[in-house]
Amino acid sequence: MNATRKVRAARLKMHGKPLHIMEAELPEPREGEVLVELLFGGVNPVDRYVAEGRVAADRMLPRTLGGEASGTVEGRRVLVSGEGLGSLRDGVWAEAAVVPRTAVIDLPDGVEPHHAAAMGIAGLTAWEVVHEFGKVTAEDRVLVLGAAGGVGTIIVSLARSIGATVWGQAASPEKADVIEQMGAARAIVTGPDELVRIVAELEPTIVFDPLGDGFLPASIDALAIHGRIVNFGTSAGADARFNLQALYRKGLSLLGYAGGQLGRERRRAGLEQTLGALRDGSLRVHVDDVLPLEDVNEAFRRLVERKVRGKLILDLRR
Fold first, then answer.
1. Is the distance from CB of 207 to CB of 222 less than 8 angstroms?
2. To 10 degrees, the CA torsion angle through 229, 231, 236, 240?
3. Domain 6-118+285-315: CATH superfamily, name plus number
4. 122-259 topology per CATH
5. Among the residues of 137-211, which ranges form H helices?
6. What pTM does this model have?
7. Domain boundaries, the chain
């Protein structure tokens, strides 16, 4: 590779400011690194947190953002994610990138690159919380909060493929249809105040919660005896007050998922399982829109205004 090759990339120059689409120079791959020709990139809330300086604020600027993408390495179709891409080092919202070899996983036959681009963060999170943390079975009655989001839609599909009864919550009625399209028996539109009353019929055995705030105490009140909550985010608020007696008298389990704490081997194994589930159809992803790279700031705006149903994908060649 010519060390002076330049590629178009979405670069963070200052925290809290729009990203710049500009040329970036690619270095020669060092030992343990490979050059990936990139195709599609997934957009996630954590990318926005990085852009705002809420994550990895002390790392180099400018740098390319993006923590997950699909592409090719020497003609092989691959998923690229992990290893601090976009936060600790240059990311993958670019036409090409030099990345650690350990961040690259071959795609199974039959997996579309624009779907694979959503698996490195959202897909892996959904797989882990459903199978490894929640241990969902066909006997479970599942409530998915924020079920129209990038992770929530995938959780709905995974839990339904296991045979569980699944309900999904959304904050606005225009998101209800996608929840049912992903396999939920019922989509409910409510905030935390009415949640307990509305889901009384379901009496969930497990709640998947990316919201926090008032949704956590409401989930505790709504759960069946010996139920469990898997929390993996706080998009509604990081502080929650709840009655401990309500937790221990029902024998509930409150589990926290931290994707950043997964070791390299477990992460890789989880991604291989996630891609396998995508290939066989037990995991489905709803792509809300595919935007050109130059519209990355529009993608952030939609996330902030909660106008996304499922996943936003960037076409890194446009």
1. yes
2. 70
3. Medium-chain alcohol dehydrogenases, catalytic domain (3.90.180.10)
4. Rossmann fold (3.40.50)
5. 150-162, 176-181, 195-198
6. 0.95
7. 6-118+285-315, 122-259
Phi, psi (5° rounding) for residue 140?
-75, 150
d(CA 136, CA 149): 20
Compute the distance between CA of residue 191 and CA of residue 203 in angstroms, rounded to an integer: 17
Per-residue pLDDT tens over the stretch 127-173:
999 999 999 999 999 999 999 999 999 999 999 999 999 999 999 99
Please give the Cα distance from 243 to 189 (Å, whole number).
25
- Expressed in angstroms, the distance from the first to the final Cα of the chain is 22
* pLDDT tens profile 228-257: 999 999 989 999 999 999 999 999 999 999
Mean predicted lDDT score pLDDT of the chain: 96
Burial (CB count within 10 angstroms: exposed 0-12, middle 13-18, buried 19+), residue 81:
buried
What size, in residues, is the chain?
Answer: 318
User: Is the separation of the CB atoms in 125 and 151 below 8 Å?
Assistant: yes
